[in-house]
């Protein structure tokens, strides 16, 4: 008798960390419901009958509803959620605009809320638990003087806080809630920045890869006794001054 495939929803899955997560889940035998604004038009996902693509802005409640509906109708259930979709706008604090904050909050916070609510409601109905893993940022709790990103870190710090609170709220239902806090990762968000500068922001003088983060996400998804944890994957940057 074969074990049924589990199903994971992954947001921001067309490139970068999101596509690395989705492809690793596929390699490990999961079904994947993958989302980005235009993922059906362009993505780096491996082709598979176990992938369902859902276009849509994660900041809209209708996108969250469509993702959960697709997972249940196509694959029968939801077992894991990876809140990866996010926006990062680095600049000096006094240069941020009200529109910057609205944009950051819509994707990084509203998107988390709408989809996580939907998925947890589905798990309460399924009655067999589930795993949420969100992508935050190492500098939310350990800032770097060389990288000004205070407004994005309001949102990422909020994800850290809600991760711990939801982990406690739903522990008795077997719903685990964790986060991965990357340092600097070689994704399109960093294109154009000097590599030497980026390496200087890590005590190991390394730039992370999307695969590094994907492996951490998979670990937390399958680690049945871990909840409420923020796992730093940042080449040691969270340790402090170097």
CATH architecture: 3-Layer(aba) Sandwich
Residue-averaged pLDDT = 94
The count of DSSP E runs of length 2 or more, i.e. the number of strands, is 7
Low-confidence stretches: none
* CATH first level: Alpha Beta
Spatially, the strands of the biggest sheet line up as 3-2-1-4-5-6-7
Q: Which features characterize this protein?
A:
single chain; 242 residues; alpha/beta; seven-stranded parallel β-sheet; 6 helices
Structure description:
By secondary structure, this protein is an alpha/beta fold. It has a single domain (7-234), classed as 3-Layer(aba) Sandwich (Rossmann fold), CATH 3.40.50. It is built from six helices and seven strands. It has helices at 16-27, 61-75, 98-126, 150-169, 195-200, 210-222; strands spanning 7-11, 31-36, 51-55, 80-83, 130-135, 175-182, 230-233. It has a seven-stranded parallel β-sheet, with helices on both faces. α1 (16-27) crosses α6 (210-222). The chain is globular and about 50 Å long. The protein starts with 6 loop residues before the first strand and ends in a 9-residue tail after the last strand. The mean pLDDT is 94.
């Amino acid at each position: 008798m074969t074990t049924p495939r589990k199903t994971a929803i992954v947001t921001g899955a067309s490139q970068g960390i999101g596509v690395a997560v989705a492809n690793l889940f596929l390699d490990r035998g999961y079904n994947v419901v993958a989302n980005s604004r235009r993922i059906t038009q362009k993505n780096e996902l491996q082709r598979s009958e176990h992938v369902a693509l859902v276009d849509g802005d994660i900041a809209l409640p209708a996108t969250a509803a469509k993702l959960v509906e697709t997972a249940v109708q196509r694959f029968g259930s939801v077992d894991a959620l990876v809140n990866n979709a996010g926006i990062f706008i680095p600049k000096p604090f006094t240069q941020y605009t009200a529109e910057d904050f609205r944009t950051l909050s819509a994707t990084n916070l509203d998107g988390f809320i709408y989809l996580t609510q939907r998925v947890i409601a589905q798990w309460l109905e399924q009655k067999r638990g589930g795993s949420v893993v969100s992508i935050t940022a190492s500098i939310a709790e350990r800032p770097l003087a060389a990288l000004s990103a205070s407004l994005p870190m309001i949102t990422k710090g909020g994800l850290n806080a809600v991760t711990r609170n939801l982990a406690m709220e739903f522990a008795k239902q077997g719903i685990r809630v964790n986060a991965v806090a990357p340092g600097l990762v070689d994704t399109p968000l960093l294109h154009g920045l000097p590599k030497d500068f980026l390496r200087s922001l890590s005590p190991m003088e390394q730039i992370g890869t999307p695969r590094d983060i994907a492996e951490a996400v998979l670990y937390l998804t399958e680690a049945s006794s871990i909840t409420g944890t923020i796992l730093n994957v940042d080449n040691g940057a969270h340790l402090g001054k170097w």
